[in-house]
Design goal:
This protein is α+β, with helices and mostly antiparallel strands. It has a single domain (9-111), classed as 2-Layer Sandwich (Alpha-Beta Plaits), CATH 3.30.70.120. The chain has 2 helices and 5 strands; from the N terminus they run E-H-E-E-H-E-E. The protein has a 5-stranded antiparallel sheet with strand order 2-3-1-4-5. Helix 1 runs antiparallel to helix 2 (79-96). The longest helix has 18 residues, at 79-96.
Length: 112
């Protein structure tokens, strides 16, 4: 740990879960690049990784969807940063008619 003491550290992690389907299950616009651009402009860079999300549909059937988790690390998070992240998630939610878009900040998941 002593060697890490003097290194530059980014203590905050922000992730936005970008859907690949609209609420009806039809493919939608890929939001990975726009999300990576927004996070990169605010924090200097971003990374995306594909994953598979699951939830139980109201009919009782297990629903699966491939999503892109786009994340960035930040030295600090301002109210302006949080507002921009939430606005971006709200835009994705509106455009895809999803019930919510997940945003993870410092290990806590929020449904926007």
């Amino acid at each position: 740990m002593k060697k890490l003491k003097n290194l530059f550290k980014l203590s905050h992690k922000v992730s936005i879960y970008c859907p690949t389907q609209d609420k009806t299950g039809k493919p939608c616009t890929d939001y990975t690049n726009t999300t990576a651009t927004m996070l990169s402009q605010r924090f200097g860079g971003a990374t995306s990784t594909p994953c598979r999300g699951y939830w139980e549909h109201e009919s009782g059937v297990l629903q699966a969807e491939t999503v892109s988790v786009v994340y960035a690390y930040a030295e600090k998070l301002t109210d302006s940063d949080i507002d921009a992240i939430v606005r971006h998630a709200e835009d994705i939610k509106t455009e895809t008619a999803q019930d919510a878009v997940a945003v993870e900040i410092d290990g806590e998941l929020y449904f926007v």
